[in-house]
Design a protein that fits this description.
93 residues; single chain; 4-stranded antiparallel sheet; alpha+beta; 30% helix
Length: 93
């Protein structure tokens, strides 16, 4: 089992979810208003007023085959709009 964490501008949430649906993910969790600091800037909820918005964090638990499908669909979205994606091993309790 794999865990995929996607962090990107909340403005791109619909495009990212569309890419996940095309990859036929079994499910996902969306956390809006994710804030923090990246290499280029600090992201706060206050940025919603500037038009930059805050980030969204999407977590997916699935098998490697789905990760491969997601990779094809999500790389285009993240490379165009920005964001990060990390895959790690996940072990159910």
């Amino acid at each position: 089992m794999k865990r995929l964490d996607l962090i990107f501008s909340e403005r791109e949430l619909n495009d990212v979810l569309s890419a996940l649906e095309k990859a036929e993910v079994p499910g996902y969790t969306v956390m809006k208003h994710a804030t923090g600091r990246g290499p280029e800037r600090i992201v706060t909820e206050d940025m919603e007023f500037t038009g930059f918005g805050s980030n969204a964090h999407v977590i997916i638990f699935c098998e490697q085959e789905i990760i491969d499908k997601i990779r094809e669909n999500i790389n285009n979205v993240l490379s165009y709009y920005g964001g990060v994606a990390y895959v790690s091993e996940a072990t159910p309790l």
